[in-house]
Write a structure and sequence with these properties.
The protein is an alpha/beta fold. Helix content is about 50%, strand content about 15%. It has one domain: Alpha-Beta Barrel (TIM Barrel), CATH 3.20.20. Bound molecules: zinc ion (ZN).
């Protein structure tokens, strides 16, 4: 069932859990993610990257994901991830997105607030708005190594949430997009200070590479949504690379290869759901 993203996240936090948001570049991945969510009885968020949403095929994918969410036995949200283009946001919402990350984090605090407000007036009250404060290095669509990040300033949090109207807040606390250079260093003191200031649930992006115990721990600091992308892609490509020749020999078995793909996604999403429980 389609469920407002802020509502499903609030319910997860109350149950000592966080909701994973998996980037879906395709329908096969989304099918496997939702099937595993149903298997575990957990809510899930299907994320669509802005690059995907930028053309007709991507907008049709959003519509298909919405239908998938409507038919699912568990709460599902369809979110446009990291969008800084208001027109792109409007098109994605029209195509069926139920949530948006209105990302004004590249600008000043004032510009960020103004952008989120502008998006709200554009999309109306029904669509759930996530915003980001601080800067997460890296690119969601490509895995590469990064280290530095501009941490979220806890002193700005209360005002940002209040003035922007954001319903979820993505934070930069040492997490990065893509692959980590060495061990990720999560700044727990910063997360704790943000948690004390925020009236809305927190979102952790770039969770691929963060230890399961740390993901679990973050839930007790107000994190109710965790974004994953790289880990899913890595597992998918590894599974496909290992099976293409065998499936070719097996009568050009594309259906079998898609099964391998789904299996890889199932394994990653299963492990993720298990991590996203407060211990
Ligand atoms: Zn992100």
């Amino acid at each position: 069932m389609l469920t407002p993203m802020n509502q499903m996240v609030a319910e997860a936090i109350a149950a000592g859990q966080a909701v994973p948001a998996f980037t879906c570049y395709d329908f096969t991945t989304a099918l496997a993610v939702v099937a595993e969510a149903e298997n575990q009885g957990r809510a899930v968020i299907l994320n669509v990257a802005p690059k995907t949403a930028g053309n007709t095929a991507g907008l049709r994918l959003i519509s298909a994901l919405r239908t998938l969410g409507e038919q699912a036995a568990v709460p599902v949200a369809v979110q446009l991830d990291h969008a800084s283009d208001a027109q792109l946001i409007a098109r994605a919402v029209q195509a069926g997105a139920t949530a948006v990350l209105a990302d004004g984090s590249a600008g000043t605090l004032e510009e960020n607030i103004a952008f989120v407000q502008q998006v709200r007036s554009l999309i109306g009250p029904q669509v759930v708005l996530e915003a980001e404060l601080g800067a997460l290095p890296g690119n969601e669509d490509k895995a590469f190594e990064q280290s530095a990040s501009q941490l979220t300033d806890p002193a700005q949090v209360a005002r940002f949430v209040q003035d922007s109207g954001a319903q979820l807040l993505a934070v930069a606390i040492g997490n990065v997009h893509g692959r980590y250079k060495g061990e990720p260093k999560i700044h727990w003191d910063v997360l704790e200070a943000i948690h004390a200031e925020s009236t809305v649930p927190l979102v952790l992006h770039g969770a691929s590479g963060i230890a399961p115990a740390d993901l679990s721990r973050s839930i007790s600091f107000g994190v109710g949504k965790v974004n994953l992308n790289t880990e899913l892609r890595t597992a998918t490509l590894a599974a496909l690379a290992g099976q293409v020749e065998a499936r070719r020999a097996d009568g050009q078995n594309v259906l079998g290869l898609m099964g391998d793909w789904e299996q890889a996604v199932t394994e990653v999403s299963s492990a993720t759901f298990n991590s996203l429980r407060a211990k």
